[in-house]
Amino acid sequence: MSNNENGDVKRSLKTRHLSMIAIGGSIGTGLFLASGNAIATAGPGGALVAYVAIGLMVFFLMTSLGEMATYMPVSGSFSTYATRFVDPAFGFALGWNYWFNWAITLAVDISTAAIIVQFWFPQTPAWLWSTIFLVLIFGLNALSVRAYGESEYWFSIIKVATVIVFLVIGVLTIFGILGGQFIGFKNFTFGEAPFKGGFFAILGTFLIAGFSFQGTELVGIAAGESATPEKSVPKAIKQVFWRILLFYIFAIFVIGLIIPYTSPNLLGGEATDVAISPFTLVFEKAGLAFAASVMNAVILTSVLSAGNSGLYASTRMLWSMAKDRKAPKFLAKVNKRGIPMAALVVTTIVGALTFVTTLSENGTIIYTWLLSASGLTGFIAWVGIAISHYRFRKAFLKQGHDLSELKYRAKFFPFGPILALILCILVIIGQDYQSFLNPDFTNPAWWQKIGISYIGLPIFLIFWLSYKLARKTKMVPLDEAKFDHRES
């Protein structure tokens, strides 16, 4: 394998690529499918409260990540920042955990994409479509970082256009201009609405909202290959707040106005439930008969976009850790096009092997545990971002730097990262709060359910403590933290 001159990735991503990667990271099946479940669980008001709170948390996390990524744009992102400003063992655990999460998620995405295509071609085998999509995603990532950025740009354009059309049609439907009579606010005052089920229902919706926003941190990893990170990253981060407001909060408000929270259709949350996606229901209410097919195509692009980004993020994380001597050395090789091919091939193989487990009977059980293990990883990564930024800023000032040196400065420090950290921990603890409301310590099934829900935490702790004990690492003193821009 021939290496490029510096053994580094190429800074080929433009501002428009980075902005759309940030947007694409937060718009996906969480909005198109799971938002209905959130309204059914907590009512339209409860869903709005949960999405506003999690949206605020994500905004603060992105400003924290933006401050660090603009000053130190590296592909290792929060793993590198945790190594530099918290503890090398913490960075090691974050990096491997994040890689593992996206490698598993790649298998989920290609499985889901195959199920979606069977909506049109029910007679074709799912494994065939999964193989085609895996080859496609691998090809886009192997070609060049520009090919990845361009494909993500167009995937995101489709998603953004769908949400905008949905909002316009939704508002027209509410006022009775499309689909008959004036609806107004009657579904917000119907039954237990706007708040159903109280605090715990909203807490449960926190989880749905949290999963919906996972992927926004991709912009931090992509910053390592941005041509102009000092311009591109702040622009992408600034858009986070407005797109969360428009795409999520407004969309859920519109769905809550049009569809009563008691509708059984809102409980669909799987990719197979495209016919009862809240978006499909609203389009059909407006008289658009082809809505299911259109939304199926949009959800397919969302899933492929998630797989594309997941393979990119995990490959770059693995490459960066290899450069930082936290992964095997051969994974640090980069070819002439600036692609870490060894890391890409290894990640693809792990994703493919995970997918193969879904094809066997016993494999489904293994797959469920793997999927559960990856479930908390996004939230753990967000905890890492909040802690790293808090210590980044403290170290920056302690070493005599001035805040004017920062090209992008996170607002509301230290309130922002502290609030984000508290909300993240709340979401992690509340992962399976229902089991703790009705504990059954003598029932093995109860313990298995708890195990599946929280398996991600012990895995993270094993990574952290094993590295800490093996290397005898300590918390990095603030006055010794390194601010140079190299990966390792």
Looking at this protein, list some descriptive labels.
single chain, 488 residues, mainly alpha, Amino acid/polyamine transporter I, globular, disordered N terminus, transport, APC_YAT, amino acid transmembrane transporter activity, Lysine-specific permease
Q: Can you give a write-up of this model?
A:
With 488 residues, the protein is mostly helical. It has a single domain, classed as Up-down Bundle (Amino acid/polyamine transporter I), CATH 1.20.1740.10. 69% of the residues lie in helices and 0% in strands. It is built from 18 helices and no strands. Helix 6 packs parallel to helix 9 and helix 6 runs antiparallel to helix 11. It starts with 14 loop residues before the first helix and ends in a 17-residue tail after the last helix. The N terminus is likely disordered.
Blueprint (SSEs and pairs):
Elements: H1 15-26, H2 29-71, H3 77-85, H4 88-117, H5 126-143, H6 145-174, H7 198-213, H8 218-222, H9 229-258, H10 278-285, H11 291-323, H12 341-357, H13 361-375, H14 377-398, H15 415-429, H16 433-437, H17 444-454, H18 456-471
Helix pairs in contact: 1-6, 1-9, 2-7, 2-9, 2-14, 2-15, 3-4, 3-14, 4-5, 4-11, 4-12, 4-13, 4-14, 4-18, 5-6, 5-11, 5-12, 6-9, 6-10, 6-11, 10-11, 11-12, 12-13, 14-15
